[in-house]
Amino acid sequence: MCGIVGYVGHRPALDVVVGGLRRLEYRGYDSAGVALLDGQGGLSVERKAGPLANLEAKLAQVDAGRLTGTAGMGHTRWATHGAPTDRNAHPHRSTAGDVAVVHNGIIENHLPLRAELEAAGIELTSDTDTETAAHLVALAYAGADGGAATKGDLVASVRAVAGRLEGAFTLLVTHAAEPDMIVAARRSSPLVLGLGEGETFLASDVAAFIEFTRDAVELGQDQVVTITREGYTVTDFAGEPVGAAPFRVTWDLAAAEKGGHDYFMLKEIEEQPTAIADTLRGHFIDHKIVLDEQRLSDQELRDIDKVFVVACGTAYHSGLLAKYAIEHWTRLPVEVDLASEFRYRDPVLDRSTLVVAISQSGETADTLEALRHAKDQKARVLAICNTNGAQIPRESDAVLYTHAGPEIGVAATKTFTSQIAANYLVGLALAQARGTKYPDEVAREFRELEAMPAAVAATLQNLDAARALGRELAGSKAVLFLGRHVGYPVALEGALKLKELAYMHAEAFAAGELKHGPIALIEEGLPVIVVMPSPKGRAVLHAKLLSNIQEIQARGAHTVVIAEEGDETVRPFAEHLFEVPAVPTLLQPLVSTIPLQVIAAEIARARGFDVDKPRNLAKSVTVE
Ligand code: M6R
């Protein structure tokens, strides 16, 4: 969580940094701040609680002459230690004000460090873990901590301090006496470098600098990077130079803008056909499914005898769908775990286990730790990720990227449907390697997947009634969701969207469970959204769900049904019926999830909430 951006170049740093923060605000919006080096020994800091707009309003009041300079950094915060107030907003400074630090992550040993600083007579002015780092760097730079090797050397000072910190962190550090550089240290938190002509960028995400350059550099764990106008250097925490891999970002500024929509989320819902098509593109070559990166041999893939899927939130829901496809196509047993629970339940793993880690950001701490646990137990790890060069794919044995482009809305939409497509590609790759499907069967499944962008586009054409229903449901206290088979994870995802966007009580149940308890919740007027299976593809389940709808309707439920086009049997029991194109059973979630996304967004808008930035949330959850 938290977004950070650093810049050393030839443009007004304030504009670059604030512009970058605007694109990183999805990472946290509890407070924001900037630090600017004026090139003449001045270091100015401005910060403000609340969203970036509050900081911008404050900056507009500040004497512009103070905020000049072509080097600076900024921060948008998702609070962990200390309330979201002005005094806890980043950047944090040393007592003399000559060192400024922004931080993403948690410094786990901040309490002993704080005690050490206080014992040395330093007064800390915030409740954050971050402030300790600012004071420690200042002491190291001054040589006041007895470190002769760090005196007057900002890079050595940051290295020395980074070596003392425990936990996960990306730190950006400036010193008034070093106006032409920013030094960063990274452990288990995201950081990417951007390279321009006479300018260099650091950020949590390439979106912050995509306007200026698409040339980026991946940074590894436990590394210190120094940027200047001329370029960059990278070392490990011991000061040994290390290589860093450059890459070219495949999307551009237009992809990171709202494109005429009121909210990013609405644009991202519309982008789903393209996101799915881009995810599939290039993965069926010479009649074979191919992954993006594969450091596993065919034999190792053939030896897999069990699959675990680990993920959080929406990615977990996509993982539940992966189970249906992988078990059906490969006959391998698949377990799906919430990443946060996985390693604490001591799962049975060995070298013939495949763990599939699904993460949009590639930096979710729970998923990363689940992956590391699996690797410690010698399991093979395959990542499905939307972020090139993120930590989860870097630590995996094989990678399939979802090419959904940047997703700025905190609620996952296009990355969910892209993950479903990617999961199915993984299922087909396993079926192909194990020979549980003939090549022509794999080809047929792939062709069916390839037809899905058109089916999703058709679904998107027909959503006015879903929007109207969203407005109608805005006054409801709660909404229930029912589904079966692949419709059940869709129901779970529909409920999650509603919780996070509309702050409404929403629960999803497998419809077969209804009579085992949840039916007691049904009361007059309660909206219940039902995801119907296909009457052709899953006739038995369809009949059972039809009975469920009648049971809840008889008890007063307000029935909303998502059903396949032409499913007339359900019409008499649906007060609202949304038809989606008829597609193969496993692929139905790609269309049936779309009305649920739209209904949730519309309810949230009608209730007056910011659809892109739901309260208390951040896009990337980089702390456990
Ligand atoms: O980046 P990840 O896919 O690992 O994130 C996982 C969840 O935090 C994420 O899906 C979250 O549930 C979304 N806000 C849901 O819309």
UniProtKB/TrEMBL annotation:
Keyword field contains Repeat: yes
Molecular function terms from GO: carbohydrate derivative binding; glutamine-fructose-6-phosphate transaminase (isomerizing) activity
Keywords tagged on the record: Aminotransferase, Cytoplasm, Glutamine amidotransferase, Repeat, Transferase
Glutamine amidotransferase type-2 domain boundaries: 2-230
Domain SIS: 297-436, 469-614
Main localisation: cytoplasm
HAMAP family noted in UniProt: GlmS
Protein function: Catalyzes the first step in hexosamine metabolism, converting fructose-6P into glucosamine-6P using glutamine as a nitrogen source.
PANTHER family reported in the protein's UniProt record: GLUCOSAMINE--FRUCTOSE-6-PHOSPHATE AMINOTRANSFERASE, ISOMERIZING, GLUTAMINE--FRUCTOSE-6-PHOSPHATE TRANSAMINASE (ISOMERIZING)
Protein name: Glutamine--fructose-6-phosphate aminotransferase [isomerizing]
Name of the gene: glmS
